[in-house]
Amino acid sequence: MSDLIDGPREDIGALLGIKYPIIQGGMAWIADSSLASAVSNGGGLGVLAAGNAPAEAVRAEIAATRALTERPFGVNVMLLSPYVDEVMSMLCEERVDVVITGAGNPGKYMEMLKAAGIKAIPVVASVALAVRMARSGADAVIAEGQEAGGHIGESTAMALIPQVADAVSIPVIGAGGIADGRGIAAAFMLGAKGVQVGTRFLVAKECTVSQQYKDMIIKAKDTDTVTTGRSVGRPVRVLKNRMTKEILSLEKSGIDADAFEQRLAGTLRIAAKDGDVVNGSVMAGQIAGLVKKEQKAAAIIREMFEETKEIYENRSFICGPGGAISGHGQGSL
Ligand code: TUI
To answer: Does residue 150's CB lie within 6 angstroms of at least one atom of ligand 1?
Structure first.
């Protein structure tokens, strides 16, 4: 089969030096050299998570990834990290290919990233931030809907992606709720030129997250995620468990932001690394219910784009005889 649909691949493929227009979510405590190199070797853009790690720990992970792949990969910088300044300086020294930012406005780092020749791709949750980022030199933006796992904004992907696509002329990458070819095709239809996928890669064979975390994703159904932290302005989507029950009840009783952060500290690590998915934060997107098995990262990518291609080739938009049910291939109305 030919590789893909021409338009979307050309833009993001040329920009990032990848075959498939797919970026792996840079999930804190999870996205390491094993997962990132597997995704890059599979033709997508693998991404390391800097999370809350100090610069030297991230530098070591970059070296480990470079030993495992010759293809481009990125680093996700979580802007709430206490180490964000030193991590950004180190990334410029290392001249990584791509920096993706999340959970904030990376405006003050844009100039140094550009000067180091690094592609800067902020995650945005609003049109306003997308426009500001485009003006300050971002190479693309990731428009992430609140279907996503982890730290989220308010808008859904369905509403956010087309509005961001209309507002900026740089490429828009869709994210939030995408785990198969239907999600990719939908994001393209909304104006995205590529996608970012997190939850599906959590169950990649090369993903080193705890087996308990993977099993919880595989067993999840559509209604199994919940958003904690809305009351303190830090909304985070996670799978429901004993910990989220307690957190939500603390929020109902009016816990303040500092006490809330203290209660949550370390909970992602214990789920991701120690496998305690009862007391830990099992961050995952609403699409977890669609994710049913472990597969190699390269197989996930191939399968998703085979599905996308199939949808593109068989599209038709009219019901009834001569339309969607019997028609195929032409895409005409
Ligand atoms: O960053 C993420 N997702 C994350 S980071 C993370 S680590 C963490 N651990 C514990 C508590 C909190 C975080 C887990 N998941 N996604 C990217 C993302 N960024 N989604 C939404 C946003 C976003 C939201 C608002 C970006 C910018 C923004 O507004 C900034 C502004 O100033 O306008």
So the answer is: yes
